[in-house]
Structures are given as C-alpha cells and as structure tokens.
C-alpha cells in the first residue's frame, strides 16, 4: 500500500514553524537603490511574516458549522486493471449496489473511460479497513488532502464553492452548456467573501545596507490577517425543511426577517447537494445536473427575473394611494369586459375586498386612474400626460428596490425590469400608445420582471410599513457584524399609512372566502398577511406565486414562493409559504396539517 500526501492551498501548517519571519524572493526585491543625499546603495527586500493561514469556516445563524476545511481521504482505483467489485465492497463495508453506484457517480458518463483513475471519498472508518488489509490490495492508492467539507446537504446556492476546488466542474460545464456556463456559475458566499475567508500574509519591506542594517522601508508594510469565519443568517434546519417542500420542482422560496433583512431560508429548486460540484467522485452527478432540462444549477432567486403576477397588485395599490388615484374606500365594478376575473366574488366596494378576491378588473381600474389621469398643466396633451404618469409610477415603484440590484452578498444578482415610457414608444412604434395597450402592468404581467429576492423584499417592505434593510446572507464576519451597507435602513417613497391600508386586505386573503383561505394558520393563533398570484404562461401551465408575512401585526418572517408551471398560487405556492412560516414561528407543524405537509413533500420528490 502506498500512501501519498497532497498539500492543498494555504491551509497546511508551514514546515518552518519555529521561525517568525523568512525572506521571500520577489521580482521587485533585491533591487539596488541609491540614496540621492548620501549616495549609499540599499537593497530592497520583501519579508513574509511567517504564519499559517487557515481558511475560515461557514456557520449558520445558530453557529452550526456548515463548511470547514478538513482532512479528506480518497481511494484511487487502478485505471485499467480488472476490478473485483464484490471484493472491493467487502473491503470497504459496502454492498455490491453501493460499489457500482459510487463508481458510476464518479464517471463523467456511463461506461466512460476517464483520462485519470476513478477516485472515491472514504470515511475514517473505511480508511481504517483499507489500511488493515492493504497488503491484499497493492493496486489501490490511498491519498489524503485538506479540502472544503460540507456538513449539510442543504443550501447549495448559498454556500457555493472555492474556485480552485471546482475546476473539474468548470470543465464539464463548458463542454455541456458552453454559452450558458456564465449563468450556471455561482460560487455563493465562498466566492463572494473569498478574500475574508482566506485571510492574507503579512509583508515587511525593509531597505538594507551592505551590512544588513535597515534604513527605512521601500513600500508600505501589511499586517497578517487570519481567515475569518462567516456567520450566516440562514437557519439550516428551516433551510432543509424548505428544500423538502420544493425538492425537484422548478422554482424558488426566499424567507427573511423583515426587521433586519437577514435571509432565513434561500431555496433554488430543483435542489442538489452542495458537495456535488467539488467532490472528486461526483462527475456523473454533475453531468446529470448540467444536462437536466430544469437547470437546477441556475441560482433562481437572485439571477432569474419573472413576471410576478397578482402579487404586484400590492405595489400598484400602494403607489395609487400615495398619488391620490384611489383611497382605501374606493369601489369599482368587476367589469369583465376590461379584463377577465377568474374568481366569483361580491362587488369589490373597497381596496380590502379587491385584494381579498384578487379582482383583476378592480386593479385594472386602479392602474387606469394612475396612468390616464390628466394634470391641469397637461390638459391639452393626453399623450404627454400618460408618459408623465408612467414615469412617475415607475419612480415610486423603483423605490421598492425594483429594476435595480438589491446588493445581496451573492455573485451576479439580476436587476429585474420595469418598463419606461421610452420603452413603450419603441415597442409600440408610436408615442400615441394608450393605457389599453399597457394594462397588463396592473396585474403584474407583461413587461414587469422581478427576482425572488425582490419579491421577498417587497413583502418585507409592506410588513415594515415602508422601509427595509437590504437582504443579506452573512450576519457576522469573524467577531464583527455584516458588511456596513446591510445596516443602512432604506425607505420607499410611499407613506407608512398607505402600507397599513394594504394589510387588512392581505389578512382577508387567508380568511374565509379569500383566495388562500385554505392556507390559514388561525387555528394555531397565527394571523398571516399574504397575496396570491397566478402568472399566465403562453408556453405551458401557469406559474404559481405567493408573498406574505407573519404574524401580521408583528412580522417576524416574510416569505416569497414562486413555482413554475404549478398552476394557481393559492393551491401550489401559498401552502409552501405558510408551512415555512409555521415551522419557523412554532418549530413544528400542527397535526391538522401533517397530511397536507406530507402530500406537498411527495409532490416535491416526484415533481408533479
């Protein structure tokens, strides 16, 4: 048996532990420099402060270690020699099915003859078995190395990976996805905070004379900084639970604490194990993920923007209240000649009733009042009035953090999109477009696109009655807090009284007769405020959406759920959201909803 030791990166202890500093040759060092005053020649040196850099850990909000640098054992199989899988299984304590599965997962595709030998990760117990019988297996090679190890199977798009450990994944991704590779690459917090996790060496820059005496410095000295731990905002148990609810379905779930902007759960579905992208024996699994039609490697909550559907009625109503286009008591007819309404309901004689039943004609007329109103200064030019009103609407909507990146601490966040008057001038090929040609904005369709982060933040803004902290995933760096920008409170252009006017309607959504009354948590004393959405989709089944927060009068969690091709928001998205709320607020699911919970998890497993 041969044992090789491979040293990776900057995480191994230095062999010169007894020294405090050592000189390091550098292209800029050992350069003679003449002092113009004395004419004496000095030599530039660069001295490395010799200390061991250890990469920081990643922990959840309750300090459970999620990612750490640990010793990992890898068994390398002979490249072309015949292999007795039955005997190998006996050696490792695996059954024959496990042996075949593990080898298949390590191959880039079934039946492949890899360019390098197959390598399998082993546990400490398995390593002990191999070493005990090493004399009987001279062709096996056991190696060990330090590598990032994941202690959880949840949170893959958040945790990410080190670029140096993901080179095999990069190579596969370029072959399988080519132009789409950029969209699939997501290093998570490992990449975003790489410098802080890694730390830095300290360097001294003395000027030395011929006798080795120092005469000042030729560059600024830098101090040694050990790699720092990241304390995430994630609740890893809530994260794992939320992933079970979405599973292999296509969509996302984002839950955050509206009081702080801290993200409690961040699910991009279909879900996968974070270790898959860097493990030496998961090439086959990576190939399946890359080829999957639902693109599980796409970081949906941050990078994918979709029409929000009826949940956007909340934003339009807030802007209309602010600009005086409606009041909380405004009534409209449910006029189906304007736009269809899929719900049978009483006449919407107030904003609360309009929200409760998600009446499309009601919000058509809300937006019509906004866009078609003609100020006295523009009474003779209705075209200019519409352009002015749309620009004003967009200015207020953008204050929600829409049509721009929120600045979450993940790579490549998408800004979403809100149309401008100039956009419609170009798209309609005329400045004389009318409200009728853009009315889809009133129900969150058409040209509006929001990300999952923006949807969850929208719910948080309403929960806070008009303000928010930028959503973020790291609450502490080392012994300090989050990045400074995540502690800066941001306010919308809408007065708090207008957000308060939305809440009764959102509560009514989950009460008897509301669009999501089946998802009420009133039986356990939790009042949920929410809004359902069903997004029309010309290319297949409709998408399901839901945003909400709980408890309604003292919000501690805000949730956004979006399930592609899942149908109605009330029956597909709302149940997932309220189960996550209940799990977070109570720690368990009430017996009344256990069967409901099991049915949702079954659908998530089999994607239907």
TrEMBL record:
From the UniProt annotation, give the residues forming the signal peptide.
1-23
Which reactions are catalysed by this chain? a beta-lactam + H2O = a substituted beta-amino acid
Q: Penicillin-binding protein dimerisation domain: which residues?
A: 55-214
Q: Tell me the ranges covered by the Penicillin-binding protein transpeptidase domain, including all copies.
A: 251-577
Main location per the UniProt record: membrane
Q: Which UniProt keywords apply?
A: Antibiotic resistance, Carboxypeptidase, Hydrolase, Membrane, Protease, Signal
Q: Where in the cell is it found?
A: Membrane
EC number(s): the record gives 3.5.2.6
Which superkingdom does the taxonomy of this entry point to? Bacteria
Give the family per the record. Belongs to the class-D beta-lactamase family.
Name of protein? beta-lactamase
């Amino acid at each position: 048996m041969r044992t090789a030791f491979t040293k990776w990166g900057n995480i191994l202890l230095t062999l010169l532990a007894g020294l405090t500093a050592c000189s390091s040759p550098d292209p800029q060092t050992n350069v003679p420099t003449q002092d113009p005053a004395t004419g004496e020649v000095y030599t530039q040196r660069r001295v490395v402060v010799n200390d061991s850099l250890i990469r920081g850990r990643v922990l959840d909000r309750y300090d459970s270690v999620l990612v750490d640098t640990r010793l990992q054992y890898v068994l390398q199989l002979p490249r072309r020699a015949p292999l007795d899988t039955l005997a190998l299984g006996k050696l490792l304590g695996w059954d024959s099915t496990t042996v075949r599965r593990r080898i298949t997962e390590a191959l880039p595709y079934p039946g492949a003859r890899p360019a390098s030998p197959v390598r399998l990760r082993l546990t400490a117990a398995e390593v002990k078995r191999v070493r005990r019988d090493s004399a009987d297996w001279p062709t096996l090679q056991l190696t060990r190395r330090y590598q990032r190890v994941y202690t959880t199977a949840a949170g893959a798009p958040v945790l990410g990976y080190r670029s140096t450990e993901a080179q095999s994944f990069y190579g596969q991704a370029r072959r399988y996805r080519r132009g789409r590779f950029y969209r699939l690459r997501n290093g998570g917090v490992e990449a975003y905070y790489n410098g802080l996790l890694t730390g830095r060496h300290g360097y001294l820059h003395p000027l030395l004379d011929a006798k080795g005496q120092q005469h000042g410095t030729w560059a600024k000295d830098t101090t040694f900084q050990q790699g720092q731990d990241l304390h995430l905002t994630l609740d890893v148990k809530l994260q794992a639970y939320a992933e079970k609810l979405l599973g292999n379905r296509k969509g996302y779930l984002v839950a955050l604490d509206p009081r702080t902007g801290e993200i409690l759960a961040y699910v991009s579905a279909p879900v996968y194990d974070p270790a898959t992208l860097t493990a030496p024996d998961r090439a086959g699994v990576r190939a399946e993920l890359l080829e999957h039609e639902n693109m599980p490697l796409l970081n949906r909550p941050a990078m994918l923007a979709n029409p929000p559907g009826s949940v956007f009625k909340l934003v339009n109503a807030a802007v209309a209240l602010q600009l005086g286009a409606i009041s909380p008591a405004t009534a409209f007819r449910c006029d189906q000649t304007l736009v269809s309404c899929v719900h049978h309901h009483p006449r919407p004689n107030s904003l609360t009733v309009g929200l409760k039943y998600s009446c499309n004609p009601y919000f058509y007329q809300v937006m019509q009042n906004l866009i078609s109103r003609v100020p006295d200064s523009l009474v003779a030019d209705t075209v200019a009035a519409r352009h002015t009103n749309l620009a004003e609407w967009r200015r207020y909507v953008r204050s929600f953090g829409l049509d721009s990146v929120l600045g979450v601490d993940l790579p490549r966040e998408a800004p979403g999109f809100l149309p401008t008057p100039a956009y419609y001038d170009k798209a309609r090929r005329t400045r004389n477009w009318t409200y009728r040609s853009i009315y889809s904005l009133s129900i969150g369709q058409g040209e509006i696109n929001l990300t999952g982060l923006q949807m969850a933040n929208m719910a948080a803004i309403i929960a806070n009655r008009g303000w928010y902290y930028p959503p973020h995933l790291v609450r502490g760096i080392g012994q300090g807090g989050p990045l400074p920008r995540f502690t800066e409170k941001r306010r919308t252009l809408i007065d708090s009284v207008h957000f308060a006017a939305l809440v009764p309607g959102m509560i009514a959504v989950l009460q008897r007769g509301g669009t999501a009354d089946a998802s009420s948590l009133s039986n356990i004393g939790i009042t949920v405020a929410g809004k359902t959405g069903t997004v029309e989709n010309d290319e297949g089944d409709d998408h399901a959406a839901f945003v909400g927060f709980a408890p309604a009068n003292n919000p501690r969690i805000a949730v956004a759920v979006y399930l592609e091709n899942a149908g109605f928001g009330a029956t597909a998205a709302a149940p997932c959201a309220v189960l996550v709320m209940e799990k977070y607020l109570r720690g368990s699911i009430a017996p009344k909803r256990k069967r409901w919970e099991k049915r949702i998890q079954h659908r998530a497993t089999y994607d239907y």
